Amino acid sequence: MEDGHAPAGAELAVALDEEEEEAAPLVSGGRGAAAAARAATSQTRDLHLLSSAFLFVFLAYHAAQNLQSTVNTDENLGSVSLGLLYTSFTAFSVVGSPVVRRMGSRRALVLGTSGYLLFIAANLVPSWYTMVPASLYLGFTASIIWVGQGTYLTSAALSHARDNNLPEGQTLGNFNGEFWGMFASTQVIGNLISLALLRDGKDGGSVTGKSLLFVVFLGCMIVGIILMCLLSKRDEKGNNAPTHSSFGAMMKYIVAPLKDRRMILIIPLIAYSGLQQAFVWAVFTKNIVTPVLGISGVGGAMAIYGAADVVCSLVAGRLTSGLHSATSIVSVGAILQAVVLFWLLLFYSPMGGLLGAAVPLFIGALWGVGDGVLNTQLSALLGLLFEDVKEAAFAQLKVWQSGAIAVIFFLSPNITLQAMLILMATALIISFGAFLLLTLVVEKPSTVRS
């Protein structure tokens, strides 16, 4: 009996061992799959957090910015403050890149929000002694937050693509589409809040209404800062390695993208993207919207602009796969903005009635489509073309963009609407031509990874 049972026991043990050996790879693979799923979840979670944080911060800032040229009118305090802000932004964007590399993009994002908080607080007691220092400090922190945003979003998108074996170009387009779609919605939400609280006639509402508006905006800023603090530390290790031992080494890194002809050809479009944003904030709201709808109508017109921006950002992001697709998408936005500029230049005059009130809203919608195109495509292309020096590339983005914005804010009180429209049309033609040259001359199979 014992001899008969021994072989059976041995066979059972061997069978169990074989089952364990077969199960082992499944367990290991399951752990790998779980790790990959956690990484993918972390990257998409950070995308949602980053987008939501910017939503709260910039719904307040954009609505406040849109009102500067029409609310803070004492000796053009609003326009001059914004001009100083973007001049400061331009100057400090040069050092934004090394600051982000040393701090890490997450810490840079948190620090960057402090300037926006101070700017909103200054609007509660607007004067030359509060607005000018707040604007200069915001220029510094804005240079940090935007380099940090571009670096962080690109890092998350590329990590997501590599961990999931996805095309990098498409993933960057999707991530930028979601971010810029959420970001564009700040114009809708913030301006609807302005419309609700400043609805007492064409003078922009009472002093109490303005104060309440900026208190609400301060609360939004605090929520945004809290969300920034919840972001993962995803690039600290990479940032600590390449530190700059001297000012010369730092400057060499910052200007490195300027030695690349691809950057030279894309800079005009970057500058135009800044011009067209400032045109909406400083010229469109004051010269097109306010004469027809009043200051209280600025919020509604900018909400329409923001809604079109949101839809276009989401769609353009989904359609982006590389330089070829970006060329087609940018062409659509450029043509729409060209139509608006030449129509305003040649045919537009303010009208009364329902049709007259609808015209600024329609113009805002068309302009929002162009802005959504430029935001998504420029960010995605810089992430693809300059992955190895992405902090410096995004610093260049903000140097040229903010410099162009400053030009508009300083020029707008001193030149006519006709002259401004001619300037914008000329800049659009030059920038779009340079971008087409980029696609014709530079694109090679190795230039942009699909």
UniProtKB/TrEMBL annotation:
GO terms for biological process: potassium ion homeostasis. InterPro entries: Ion_channel_UNC-93 (IPR010291), MFS_trans_sf (IPR036259), UN933_plant (IPR044771), UNC-93_regulatory (IPR051951). CDD domains: MFS_unc93_like. The keyword ATP-binding does not apply. The keyword Cytoplasm does not apply. It holds the Pfam family UNC-93. The chain crosses the membrane at residues 47-64, 76-96, 108-129, 179-199, 211-231, 263-284, 290-317, 329-349, 361-385, 421-442. This is Major facilitator superfamily (MFS) profile domain-containing protein. It comes from the Eukaryota. It is found in: Membrane. It is a multi-pass membrane protein. It comes from Oryza barthii. Keywords: Membrane, Transmembrane, Transmembrane helix. Belongs to the unc-93 family. GO terms for cellular component: membrane.
